[in-house]
UniProtKB/TrEMBL annotation:
CDD domains: AdoMet_MTases (cd02440). Keywords: Methyltransferase, S-adenosyl-L-methionine, Transferase. Pfam families: Methyltransf_25. GO terms for molecular function: methyltransferase activity. The keyword RNA-binding does not apply. This is tRNA mo(5)U34 methyltransferase. It comes from the Bacteria. The keyword Translocase does not apply. GO terms for biological process: methylation.
Length: 283
């Protein structure tokens, strides 16, 4: 991995910059999650939960029980202390680590009705192969018919300068097509990040390749997320724009996908990984 995502996010959360930029859940994404939860039951896995803006909304608005995992110790520390009463009651179970930690912390028959993986978590996982492993792990953690709500950044809307800068690293084989490195200023200095930016086609193909059936695809937002979650007016405007504008204008893509059925889940074998992209052929 070219940068430490754990270290970067630890510093990001510790600086409180993340809370300033993203103080609450994206209202239209949350609406999709709540709708799915209504249909899908009450056990939720929040993968890459951060310090809990979606977990908080679900704890407040639904009777769901939530397992929330993140690789950042700072994020899990903040989440655990903020929602200590829910942790004590057993409704919220914070786990420090990735999906392998979730799998090893649960009983073999403990499955989820709904997995949420929101605001670029998948895109922070370095390499196409490891993102595929993460999707396969989620599939195994869902009950038959269980669903995932997943969002990823749109390459056509995000980080154009960084995409240009990444070309040399992609040509040299240090990054894969669609990958970028970017920097975020924090009180504590510069935080370096890895991100994979998606086209809609790649997003849909990746989900289907790893055994999901897509139920719905839309925009996570059209306006930048930090504006949408900080201003009620922008949040409302964005809710309208996401329904009116073509998906190519999305700031991030949102998909709702499901595991087809039980036989499918046990018999499913991951497909062979796609061949690495030709040098210099950025998406
Ligand atoms: C942009 S934040 C999103 C946090 C939260 N979902 C939200 O919407 O506020 C990305 C989060 O993903 C976490 N993350 C990155 N890779 C991860 C992995 N492999 N497993 C679990 N969490 C991961 C980071 O630590 C960070 O908290």
């Amino acid at each position: 991995m070219p940068v430490s995502v754990i270290e970067s996010y630890d510093r990001y959360f510790a600086s409180r910059l993340y809370d300033q930029r993203y103080p609450r859940a994206n209202p239209s994404t949350l609406a999709v999650v709540l709708e799915q939860l209504g249909r899908q039951g009450r056990r939720v896995l929040d993968v890459g939960c951060g310090n809990g803006r979606y977990a908080e909304a679900l704890l407040e608005r639904t009777p769901a029980s939530i397992v929330a995992c993140d690789i950042s110790p700072r994020a899990i520390g903040d989440l655990s202390s903020r929602y200590a009463a829910h942790v004590a009651s057993g409704r919220l179970r914070p786990l420090l680590g990735d999906l392998s930690v979730v799998a090893s912390s649960l009983g073999p028959n403990e499955k989820f009705d709904l997995v949420i993986m929101l605001f670029g978590v998948l895109a922070h996982i370095y390499s196409r192969a490891l993102r595929g492993e993460a999707l396969a792990a989620i599939r195994a953690l869902l009950r038959p018919g269980g669903r995932i709500v997943l969002t990823v950044p749109n390459a056509a809307r995000r980080f154009s300068r960084e995409q240009t800068a990444a070309r040399k690293l992609i040509q040299a084989g240090h990054l894969e097509a669609g990958d970028i490195l970017y920097e975020r200023a924090s009180d504590d200095g510069v935080v370096e990040m890895y991100y994979h930016l998606y086209s809609l086609k790649e997003f849909v193909q990746e989900l289907e390749q790893w055994g999901f059936r897509i139920r719905q695809v839309g925009a996570e937002s059209v306006l930048p997320e930090s504006g949408v979650v900080r201003s009620t007016l922008l949040g409302k405007l964005d809710g309208v724009l996401t329904t009116l504008l073509p998906l190519r204008y999305a700031y991030g893509f949102l998909a709702v996908a499901e595991v087809a059925n039980e036989e499918d889940a046990t018999e499913y074998l991951p497909p062979p990984m796609p061949r690495p992209p030709a040098p210099g052929k950025a998406e």
